[in-house]
């Protein structure tokens, strides 16, 4: 527990210290954001804010995770190592997308939706297979509130591939307001850190070490995100980009899977789910009714924005609701 | 632990449900805030916002605490009962102040500083004596980081009286930006709830029950504050008033004392301390230099505001820093 607290504090301090330097570097490399032409009008003033700020918290998380516990490990069964690798692979997809966007100087100039999905599919399927084969994870998942283990068998791999792709895309869609995804994700990471700690106390041996190491990793991510928020809160000096949102999506999905709790994702990360679902519902409704809309704009947070709620208020409420969703998730586990 | 989670969720839901009704009632009673003439200019538009919103979370906390555990108790040794009573006494002082302000239609028309201090002194001294005489509290306090118990003897009562008055006034001074005191205090309350839970696991019998009950009370306060924030975040629809800030100051000071950890207050509630100290430093420096100022304005949050930091950003950063200060406090305990 002390190690986790240290992880938060050190990661926070590192993010504060490296933040200004990262922003200067991104500016110098001209990694400015090209705002999506269809975003609410008020967002056009965000044009030119340095993007790929996600590199800041991603690298701090990874380095911290490494320093704190990758001293001696077995790469094949070290769950924290698998988790980091998976999050980094997702980050890479986001990075390619960001990079192409910057080069093309348009928000829509990144990877095509098909290219992105194909890459996500490969990474997601590979990690699902890793979990399936991992002696401490396997193919059975816990059903919250029901309190039973659900053995998925071979279906685990395609099902989890789907879960991962939904999570990373949800996270990606949620990244639309200053500080939104970072604050929501810091809460989820803190929750996962505590969960890992609680689970670890009931275990012993290598599994326990794995849990604790993953807990430290999540704690570090939470701390780094809080530090990153110093620069990302409204008015944002830096934006995380797909680089950051894909990393976070990967971290959330991967962590939930390694804990055997992928069904917690839509609850604890309800903010991700709301983004994804609102986009889907909007599209389907739009097609079915030949042009009508349920939400003023999707994802959901833009709907609130266009309804006149202040950006900072939406962000705070998303964070608060995420705290409560995590507490609800906790109740779902302690049946 | 489950009971605590329920306390948060129920208190949150209650605050959401009762919030609009409370605001309507306060409006009807014409309990509007009269903004201090010397506050930053931008605050003048807050004129007329209903005040005494603190009643919302205070009453929810108290009722919830009552329902959850005052079934059978010994009023003389029930620490949660003592805590609630103490917080309510402080709330009453704040309420009188608010009420007089509203009647006089001026921000400075409340109780005189001397009247307020006299009342605070009586309440603080009484509670300090209660703790001194309580078989499970007594006159020794824990020194964080040093890891020793410090036996204060008779000095406990005057020393703690001083600590309480500093805390409630710090809390009172911190209540200057939309959502500031409520978000900072919700973090502190959550921290105290977790602390009580951790301490309880090492105990048994009546002390354990006392700890757990206080933990539930703090969890309820945290939940009620999160719900209250729905209405208090910028732009605020309601303000807690001295009614709320004195209640919270009392709750923080009282809880820390009952845990035997009053020395944690300046660290965990560092935001309170910063408000109080900045006002003192400003005054002393102003007198010593015959008119120079260290801060553009005190308390500290107004200094940041006049330095051009957005109000919402100051509030978020105060909340984030409080999270980290609570984690640091935790390190100070686990020596």
Strands of chain A, count: 2
Q: What would you call the shape of chain A?
A: globular
| Mean of pLDDT of chain A | 91
Radius of gyration of chain A (Å): 19 Å
Give an overview of the whole structure.
The first copy, chain A, is 69% helix and 2% strand. The mean pLDDT of chain A is 91. By secondary structure, the first copy, chain A, is mainly α. The A-B interface holds A 1-2, 5-6, 8-9, 12, 179, 183, 226, 229-230, 233-235, 310, 312-313, 316-317, 320, 323-324, 327-328, 330-331, 334 and B 1-2, 5-6, 8-9, 12, 179, 183, 226, 229-230, 233-235, 310, 312-313, 316-317, 320, 323-324, 327-328, 330-331, 334.
List the SSEs and their pairings.
Two copies of one chain form a homodimer.
Chain A (H helix, E strand, L loop, with lengths): L1 H27 L25 H16 L9 H26 L8 H21 L6 E4 L4 E4 L4 H19 L5 H22 L3 H28 L8 H18 L6 H4 L1 H19 L11 H7 L4 H23 L2
Helix pairs in contact in A: 1-2, 1-7, 2-3, 2-7, 2-8, 3-4, 3-8, 4-5, 5-8, 5-10, 6-7, 6-8, 6-12
Keywords:
homodimer, 12 helices, 2% strand, mainly alpha, 69% helix, two-stranded antiparallel sheet, 335 residues
């Amino acid at each position: 527990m002390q190690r986790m607290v240290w992880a938060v504090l050190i990661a926070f301090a590192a993010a504060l210290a490296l933040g200004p330097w990262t922003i200067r570097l991104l500016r110098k490399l001209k990694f400015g954001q090209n705002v999506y032409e269809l975003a609410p009008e008020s967002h056009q003033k965000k044009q030119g804010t340095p993007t790929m700020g996600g590199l800041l918290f991603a690298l701090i998380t990874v380095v911290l995770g490494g320093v704190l516990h990758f001293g001696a490990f077995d790469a094949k069964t070290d769950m924290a190592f698998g988790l980091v690798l998976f999050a980094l692979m997702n980050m890479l997809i986001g990075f390619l997308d960001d990079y192409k966007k910057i080069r093309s100087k348009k928000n829509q100039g990144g990877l095509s939706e098909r290219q992105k999905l194909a890459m996500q599919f490969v990474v997601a399927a590979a990690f699902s297979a890793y979990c399936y084969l991992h002696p401490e994870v396997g193919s059975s998942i816990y059903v919250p509130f029901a309190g039973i283990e659900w053995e998925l068998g071979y279906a685990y791999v395609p099902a989890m591939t789907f879960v991962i792709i939904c999570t990373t895309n949800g996270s990606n869609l949620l990244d639309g307001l200053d500080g939104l995804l970072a604050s929501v994700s810091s809460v989820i990471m803190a929750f996962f850190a505590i969960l890992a700690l609680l689970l670890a106390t009931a275990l012993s041996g290598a599994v326990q070490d794995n849990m604790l190491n993953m807990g430290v990793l999540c704690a570090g991510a939470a701390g780094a995100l809080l530090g990153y928020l110093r620069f990302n809160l409204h008015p944002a000096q830096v934006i995380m980009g797909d680089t950051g949102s894909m990393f976070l999506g990967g971290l959330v999905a991967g962590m939930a899977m390694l804990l055997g709790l992928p069904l917690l994702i839509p609850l604890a990360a309800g903010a991700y789910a709301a983004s994804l679902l609102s986009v889907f519902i909007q599209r389907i409704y739009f097609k079915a009714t030949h042009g009508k809309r349920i939400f003023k704009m999707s994802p959901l947070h833009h709907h609130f924005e266009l309804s006149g709620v202040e950006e900072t208020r939406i962000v705070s409420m998303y964070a608060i609701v995420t705290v409560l969703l995590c507490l609800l998730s906790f109740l779902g586990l302690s049946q």
